[in-house]
Amino acid sequence: MLADKRFWKSVLMLALPIALQNLLTSSFSLIDILMIGSLSDNAISAVGMAAQITFLHNVFLFGICSGGSIFVAQYWGAGNISGIKKTYGVILANCFTVSLVFFTLAFFMPELCMRVFTDNDAVTEIGVKYLRYVAFSYFGVSLTMGFSSVLRATEQVKIPLYSNIFSVATNILFNYLLIFGKFGFPQMGVTGAALATVIASVVNPTMVFLFSAAKRTIIFSSIKELFSFTVSGLREFYSIVLPVFFNEMLWAVGMTAYNSIYGHMSHSHFAALTISKTVENLVFVFFIGLCNACAVLVGKYIGLKRFEDAKEYAKRFLCLVPVTGLLLGAAVIGLRGSILSLFNIEDNVRQVASLLLLVFGLAISVKNIPFIAIVGIFRAGGDPKKGMLFDLLCLWGIGLPITFVCGILLKMDFVLVYILMILSEDVTKTILCIKYFLTMKWIRPVKQ
Prior knowledge:
It contains 15 helices and no strands. It is globular, with a radius of gyration of 21 Å. Helix 1 runs antiparallel to helix 11. The chain has 448 residues and is an all-alpha fold.
């Protein structure tokens, strides 16, 4: 099944640039936390909690872009360039609207946002300063995600990678200059980190647009082409995208609820969780690459009406996840001590972070099989609703109630609560996704 050279060529051409792009972003997040961590544990906790608002914003954008990519990938397979451009215009308009809402929350109500995660005044004060600046980055991020989703779905994955290299380099440079006040720049601490993020958020979409203009890609299209969609076209778009958007929205709110529970259990343990999540994001980039490659190829073959090829490719990607998970899990477990030695943190924070990384290393495959199935296969096949059902049932019906009861009411050990969350949500979701995948009912072509 996995010995097909054509399959591996397609996977590597699509997955590697996407994985590398996300690796750069996640590597920067690690460097960001290392720099901020030199200030204090409170700074790590504050930025980790404030970043949950950015996380919500990005996931909402991902819901729009992921849903829109269903159309783009299938239109790409069918050769419908006009349909791609109209879909691209709708994606951009919706992404900008989401960013405007989150900017309003983060800029005008930052203290309210922080109080969702902590009642610690010192942590809240730091987080408020960070949020007021970082709110301006949301508009640039919305453009970048809109541009990148269309390019990836049309098998043009190198431009987002190149632009991301510029953006990450900019972010690291200005982090160093503004956090610590180097070379005559003011020493701004966490506020400097937020301002560096804003600067990088402008660089990224600018570079994507310039590269696209040079290569004359679909991104470089006229306003008339982008916004010439019809009412019936919008109806079809939202019939597919809204389930994906609400899936991602409610999933993101659920993840925020988890972090609120963890934050109220212990802000020092939340610092450990922030470090662990940063490392997890580094590992997750490999699955993002696989998932995007899966979605493009499955969607493309469905657009070509080559359904057997779509099924075969989906099976191969689903088999790759546990294999990849075992290798990456072993690496995380073996290297976690060396990774944590990079952080200037107290011993109790280091111990909790080490345990969290051990649990994550053991659970990588279980956590990512549903991700590939729901985002890379079911959505690309044109069936986002079943994935939404599995996601929300396992999160809101099982995982969150158990985590709340064990963490807040019973005040159980922090790491044990984290383990129970994985067992109750991710294991159940994995079983449901595999059973539905085997029915092959997820193949539902969109209208051309």
